[in-house]
Amino acid sequence: AVMKAAADAGVPVIEDAAQHASATVAHRPTGSFGDVSVLSFGRGKGTTSGRGGALLVRNDFVTIPQLPASPVARALAIASASWMLGRPWIYGIPASIPALHLGETVYHEAGEPTAMARDAAALLDRTLTGMSGAAIARRANAVVLRDVADQSRHIAAVHPVAGGNPGYLRFPILLRGDRHDEPALGIAAGYPNSLSSEKESLECMVASKEPLHGAQELARRLVTLPTHHMLKNQDISKLSTWLRSA
């Protein structure tokens, strides 16, 4: 529907599929809809190379120049740290380090684009082979968490749109009461603030006098739980216990 409305208006669509994680809509993979689609291969993504991303162009909306090589090769170190800190029994350590700014919205000045570093490209090639298996594990964990959340009077599980099959990088819920996180279990707020409350984004937004109730509601109530393949049965059990008591 978005693509049709944009085409009728002669407006190109930039699709943000940074967290696509093998998700599909109407049996089409996310990242395949827009005139231009943006993918991310950063840490925490379903398909990771430690850093970097990709721009998929389907028409002459934008011309991709020959990009210079990346001057720094840090992808392997970043991916290794994420792999180590992603284990459930160690969640509390990175959450207790303020310098990591976990759970915050952090803006970085844009730099000139470069080609993907060789170590990142090699790591991505390896990651792609395990992408389907990782997605299957995430979806299986999400089904368990969703069944528990659906039985709670204090939580509303977020269900996919009709025809959608999420990749479930994380499992989203809406708390009916006050928000409370549990870093030791990897449970964290979705967004600290709505975009309309972030001063860095105000210059890019269309001014509106209407209150953005939906965005504020998400910032207040949205919480996400881990789903990744390194979760064990005991971890799912702890998350389920939290959901019943939240």
Question: Would you kindly provide a written description of the structure presented here, covering whatever features stand out?
Answer:
By secondary structure, the chain is α+β, with helices and mostly antiparallel strands. It contains 8 helices and 10 strands. The chain has helices at 2-9, 75-85, 92-95, 118-129, 131-150, 199-202, 213-221, 233-245; strands at 14-16, 24-25, 28-29, 36-40, 53-57, 155-157, 164-165, 170-175, 188-189, 222-226. Helix 5 packs parallel to helix 8. It is globular.
Would you summarize the structure shown here?
This protein is α+β, with helices and mostly antiparallel strands and 246 residues long. It is built from 8 helices and 10 strands.
Annotate the secondary structure layout.
Elements: H1 2-9, E1 14-16, E2 24-25, E3 28-29, E4 36-40, E5 53-57, H2 75-85, H3 92-95, H4 118-129, H5 131-150, E6 155-157, E7 164-165, E8 170-175, E9 188-189, H6 199-202, H7 213-221, E10 222-226, H8 233-245
Parallel strand pairs: 1-4
Antiparallel strand pairs: 2-3, 2-7, 4-5, 6-8, 8-10, 9-10
Helix pairs in contact: 5-8
Features:
about 250 residues, four-stranded antiparallel sheet, alpha+beta, 10 strands, about 35% helix, 8 helices
What's the N-to-C terminus distance? 37 Å
Number of strands: 10
Into which percent range does the helicity of residues fall? 25-40%
Q: pLDDT under 50 segments (min length 5)? A: none
Strand content: 5-15%
What is the topology, as strand order, of the major beta sheet?
6-8-10-9
Discrete helix count: 8
- Structural class call reads alpha+beta
